[in-house]
Amino acid sequence: MDHIIGIIGAGHIGRGLAIHLVKTTFPVLIANSREPESLNELVASIGGSLKATGLQEIIAQADILFIAIPWSQLPELAGELKKYSGKIIVDATNNIVSFNPFVLADTAGKTTGEYVAALFPAQRVVKAFNTLAAAILTQPGSGDAGRTVIFISGDDSDAKREVASLIEVMSFEPIDIGTLKEGGKLQDAGGALSGIELIRIKN
Asked: Which of 40, 53, 92, 102 is the most buried (most CB within 10 A)?
């Protein structure tokens, strides 16, 4: 299936995602909160099919949207997506609002994936890419021995399959750990899988 891939957020995580998404055969768009011209240097350094665009354009055009923005910006983005439905949202966010001191935003007892899914009720949310540090995402430690694992969770099985296929083309190894509720508990900051790079060894 043909897709247009979008990345919203051009920080360290967004950049890491772009480096691997250009390995696919799909057009890849990236946007931040500023004008597309602010991303010219980043786009030139990564190359491939990557193209900078405005926020409205990326929301309208992309079929799969990778979200890599600060937690506090999610409600505003949700408002921008209200007139659309059926897009796959790959939620790479964590609810970290401060590192020093380390503070997590209140999610009212929900996992971050459940919280994001509630913000984007008309979309198909898959939680992924939130357990690795940006440096590892950009340059995984895996090599000839195997592939770095990307854990995914979600409540839409078809969306998870599409994201898993994309992860494989990005040269990672997808592992489905269940629903946003159960899998998300392992993925979220402080969870058993948070901050750990696992490598699936080749057979």
From this structure: 92
